[in-house]
């Protein structure tokens, strides 16, 4: 008796394990198209059936087929159940009539191939879902999350009630004998379809927030640009305005007028340069890209910057110079980017110091390194370098680094920054090495 009891208990445990395994498999088949879509769809364009109707229809069709291929017995040996209705209902609500029709054809063909008792009831039930649920789609899209949960749960319950009454009618099963099993089936499928809808709604909400954040960032960038342009242009314009007012109100000698004219011209050139810099950042335009040897260009920039460095008590040193390193760039824009970085390094040492410059290369890469002994930056400040209107300088707008990052990026280069507060900063410009190609 003990062995018989143990054997029966083991059989019950085995049956429960098989049922749970089958149920988990079906849940996985339902979730996998959503997860696959989330992994491979482009961020900012994940709108399920709206943006990727064909892809999602194929994935949900696979989900339906897998659920039908791997059903599970539910509570008794008489009921073999699967969760194909979940992707059918969800697909109809998010995809509309066309998607619903395709999913109906897939499930119907699969059910005909499987055959067996209840085939016609199942196909009729699937047809009711495919024909009726799309009419609820406009309502579903309008209501809030709680309303959506209630609606999908009610649709799921209604579809199973249809099966229950149809089975009782055609097969003569007394309702009082099967009501308990069908209630459990309703709770089982209803819970899973609610969780599926919640998952989709959560992903949709995350996508909406992502798009809203992108839009906000774009608006914030425009705002920063406007503030930077206003701030930078105001100074030369105010100078020009002041000199014109002086010449209008007072009589000055010809020599003094020429001096004013020269100052006005210089301020106009300053404003033009500022506008050119913004155009470079917003829409970079380059002359012809040409292979250049890096070392002569670096020597040229250092020669240009020497007077400025001397005035700040900064000594510029060449630590290492690979004379054979070559890169493909616009010569003028490359020099402009390098000037911006060296100027920043000099200005980071208000008490003077040493600015070390080196050029290194490997068969694949060329590195131009500029290291200062200045005030340095925190990790957060390093991350924000190149952002509009971010600068460590009191009167800076960050325009120089914005332009530098834009120039280097557009010429297939990369800006690497290593900095520590109070110990200095090292900028590294990394470019593909074309020395082997030029040979």
UniProtKB/TrEMBL annotation:
Transmembrane residue ranges: 21-40, 52-74, 86-106, 118-137, 149-172, 178-200
The keyword Nucleus appears for this protein? no
Record protein name field: histidine kinase
User: Keyword set for this entry?
Assistant: ATP-binding, Cell membrane, Kinase, Membrane, Nucleotide-binding, Phosphoprotein, Transferase, Transmembrane, Transmembrane helix, Two-component regulatory system
The UniProt entry, under PANTHER family, shows: C4-DICARBOXYLATE TRANSPORT SENSOR PROTEIN DCTB, SENSOR HISTIDINE KINASE
Q: Does the keyword ATP-binding apply?
A: yes
Entry's EC annotation = 2.7.13.3
Q: Where in the cell is it found?
A: Cell membrane
Q: Topologically, how does it sit relative to the membrane?
A: Multi-pass membrane protein
User: Entry's PROSITE patterns?
Assistant: HIS_KIN (PS50109)
Checking Pfam families in the record gives: 5TM-5TMR_LYT, HATPase_c, HisKA
Q: Which residues form the Histidine kinase domain?
A: 228-435
- Record-level Gene Ontology MF annotations: ATP binding
Reaction(s) this enzyme catalyzes, per UniProt? ATP + protein L-histidine = ADP + protein N-phospho-L-histidine
């Amino acid at each position: 008796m003990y062995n018989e009891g143990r054997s029966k208990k083991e059989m019950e445990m085995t049956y429960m394990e098989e049922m749970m395994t089958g149920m988990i498999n079906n849940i996985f088949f339902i979730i996998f198209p959503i997860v696959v879509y989330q992994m491979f769809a482009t961020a900012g364009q994940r709108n399920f059936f709206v943006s990727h109707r064909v892809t999602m229809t194929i994935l949900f069709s696979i989900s339906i087929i897998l659920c039908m291929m791997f059903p599970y017995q539910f509570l008794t040996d008489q009921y073999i159940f699967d969760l194909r209705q979940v992707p059918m209902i969800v697909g109809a609500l998010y995809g509309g009539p066309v998607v619903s029709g395709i999913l109906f054809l897939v499930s119907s063909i699969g059910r005909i191939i499987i055959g067996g008792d209840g085939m016609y009831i199942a196909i009729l039930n699937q047809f009711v879902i495919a024909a009726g649920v799309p009419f609820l789609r406009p309502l579903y899209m309008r209501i809030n999350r709680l309303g959506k949960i209630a609606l999908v749960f009610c649709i799921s319950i209604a579809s199973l009630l249809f099966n229950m009454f149809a089975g009782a009618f055609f097969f003569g099963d007394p309702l009082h004998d099967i009501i308990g099993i069908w209630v459990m089936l309703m709770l089982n499928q209803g819970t899973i379809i609610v969780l599926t809808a919640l998952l989709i709604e959560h992903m949709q909400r995350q996508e909406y927030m992502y798009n809203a954040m992108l839009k906000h960032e774009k608006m914030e960038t425009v705002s920063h640009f406007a503030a930077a342009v206003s701030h930078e242009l105001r100074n030369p314009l105010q100078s020009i305005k002041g000199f014109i007012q002086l010449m209008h109100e007072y009589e000055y000698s010809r020599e003094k007028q020429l001096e004013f004219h020269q100052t006005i011209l210089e301020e106009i050139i300053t404003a033009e340069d500022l506008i050119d810099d913004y155009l470079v950042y917003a829409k970079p335009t380059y002359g012809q890209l040409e292979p250049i040897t890096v070392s002569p260009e670096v020597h040229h920039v250092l020669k240009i910057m020497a007077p400025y460095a001397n005035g700040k008590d900064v000594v510029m040193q060449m630590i290492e110079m690979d004379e054979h390193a070559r890169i493909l760039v616009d010569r003028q824009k490359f020099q402009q980017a390098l000037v911006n970085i060296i100027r920043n390094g000099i200005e980071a040492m208000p008490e003077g110091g040493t600015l070390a410059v080196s050029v290194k290369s490997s068969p694949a890469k060329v590195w131009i390194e500029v290291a200062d002994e200045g005030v340095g930056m925190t990790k957060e400040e390093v991350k924000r370098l190149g952002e509009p209107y971010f600068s460590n300088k009191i009167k800076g707008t960050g325009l120089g680094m914005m332009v530098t990052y834009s120039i280097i990026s557009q010429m297939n280069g990369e800006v690497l920054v290593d900095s520590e507060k109070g110990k200095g900063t090292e900028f590294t410009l990394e470019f593909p090495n074309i020395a082997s190609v030029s040979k």
